[in-house]
Amino acid sequence: MTNCVAEIDLRGRTGTADDEVMDLAETLRPGQSLRLVSLQLPRLLLHRLHERLPGHLYVGLLETAADRVRLHLERRAPGAPASSRDFLSWDHRRLERLLTEATDEVKQGLEHARARFEELSCALDRHVATEELLLFPMLSPSAEADGLSSEHAWLAAQRRRLRGTLDGGDALRFAREGSALAGALAAHHHREERSLYGVADSTLDEAARERMLVDLQTL
Questions:
Q1: What is the C-alpha separation between 92 and 67, in angstroms, rounded?
Q2: Which of 24, 87, 97, 108 sits between 20 and 30 A of 72, alpha carbons compared?
Q3: What distance in Å separates the CA atoms of residue 110 and residue 95, rounded to the nearest whole number?
Q4: Rounded to 5 degrees, what are φ and ψ at 83?
Q5: 94-140, pLDDT tens digit by residue?
Q6: Is pLDDT larger for residue 219 or for residue 53?
Q7: How many helices (H) and strands (E) in the chain?
Q8: Which residues, including other chains, have CB under 8 Å from residue 112's CB and lie 6 or more apart?
Q9: What topology is assigned to 84-202 in CATH?
Q10: Rounded CA gap, 158 and 84, in Å?
Q11: More confident residue, 144 or 213
């Protein structure tokens, strides 16, 4: 679990709010995070953050709604250089954590589970869309790309089924099916990390790899 130090609502704020976010982001220690709320994806701000803290900050989506977008920004741990593989693997762990939290929090009530499940659904849709837009063309046409795409469709169907269980108010079944989905999601992630994520890092030059890393977080 990451340590969220603040949530900043940018809606209705002036440009000085961007400076507040950037200054706070610089003070984050590895593993610490902050959350942003905005009317739409603040792409210019995200690009400025990546320019000021290149390779030190990872960004994940939590919510998209008519009146807001919520983002999770986390200071990455020191170690290997930032890369598409490292970012997407980080996002995998975030998705797995959200699903685990949803199944755990159903014990506290369905609404607790629903909040985490909605964050998972939004984050997973975004993750899959960026993979299929930016990475799959590097594999296609191939049986491997087709197989991973089929798994994406299957996971989406299972998630819809799980949402129906949640809407039906069956907490025990939600916990059981959520745990089963967690296992399938982790196995899918393992296959992607083994076969897909090295493609960008191995086929692109350094400048293109840096652009890809930013694009995965800002498109």
A1: 27
A2: 108
A3: 19
A4: -155, 170
A5: 999 999 999 999 888 898 899 999 999 999 999 999 999 998 888 76
A6: 53
A7: 9, 4
A8: 105, 106
A9: Four Helix Bundle (Hemerythrin (Met), subunit A) (1.20.120)
A10: 27
A11: 213
Cis previous bond, 30, omega within 30: no
CB count within 10 Å of CB 216 equals 22
152, 128 in Cβ contact below 8 A? yes
DSSP labels, 44-72: HHHHHHHHHSTTTEEEEEEEEETTEEEEE
pLDDT in tens, 4-52: 999 999 998 877 889 999 999 999 999 999 999 999 999 999 999 999 9
Angle formed by the axes of helices 206-218 and 43-52, to 10°? 140
- What are φ and ψ of residue 58, in 5° steps? -115, 145
- Whether 189 and 92 have beta carbons less than 8 Å apart is answered as yes
Query: Domain 3-79 class?
Result: alpha beta
> Roughly how many angstroms between the first and final C-alpha of the chain, as a whole number?
26
What average pLDDT does range 200-208 have in this prediction?
85
**Where do runs of H (alpha helix) occur along 53-142?**
84-105, 110-130, 136-139
Report the candidate in 95, 121, 111 with the shortest Cα–Cα distance to residue 166: 111
The residue ranges of every structural domain in the chain are: 3-79, 84-202
- Residue 111, classed as helix, strand or coil, is helix
In terms of Cβ atoms closer than 10 Å to its own Cβ (0-12, 13-18, 19+), residue 149 is middle
